[in-house]
Amino acid sequence: MNSIGLDQVLAWIREIAARVEDQRGYLTELDSAIGDADHGANMNRGFKAAMERLEATPPDDMASALRTVAMALIGKTGGASGPLYGTFFLEMGKAIGDADTIDAARFAAALRAGIDGVKARGKAELEDKTMIDALEPAFSALEEAIASGQELSAALAEAEVAAREGMEATIPLVARKGRASYLGERSAGHQDPGATSSHLILAAAAEVFGK
């Protein structure tokens, strides 16, 4: 796939929702160790609400689809995840604007905008043991692959690997942001649930946009 349009974005959201539902128990298990034990349930509720809104009022373009997802996540997800993921999709939509289709470089720019929005809202950086630890490496891998001339499918495959490696790299880290930071050194040894759900989102993109 060399370009992304509304149908592909909607398929991406459906794939995220399906993966979140499938993994909600695992996400909650991770969160029970260093959080409030509700990340899986919260994310599942948010994406279910997003799908219901998209089906009730079909969007006209990619930006409005992502804005609908953002508003559902902010309104229904709860905790810190709702505003953070809501900001991620909202800023991606803003970066895409009124384009009917986007190429790999434009998708990367939208991803960058989404990540920057999360960082601005959550004040997190790499190695703070948050979703940024999956998202930032994914973007770097995507950008490098695109710059080297790879097509979107191959570039996203590399981004997914980088997101997974970033997610796994949170295990030994001591949390410096969010609920997990209250545990101090006891947060080490546990995989961050936010980085895990961020990996799910990148994995869904690699699956849908990589076809």
**Number of helices in the DSSP assignment:** 8
Main sheet strand line-up: 1-2
Distance between the termini: 6 Å
Q: What proportion of the residues form beta strands (DSSP E)?
A: under 5%
Can you tell me the CATH architecture? Alpha Horseshoe
Instruction: Give a short account of the largest sheet.
Output: 2 strands, antiparallel
- CATH class type: Mainly Alpha
How many discrete structural domains? 1
- Coarse structural class: mainly alpha
Arithmetic mean of pLDDT: 94
Helix content: 55-70%
Q: Supply the CATH superfamily name.
A: DhaL domain
Q: Could you tell me the radius of gyration in angstroms?
A: 16 Å
Shape: globular
CATH topology: Serine Threonine Protein Phosphatase 5, Tetratricopeptide repeat
Low-confidence stretches: none
| Helix-strand pattern | EHHHHEHHHH
> Could you give the count of β-strands?
2
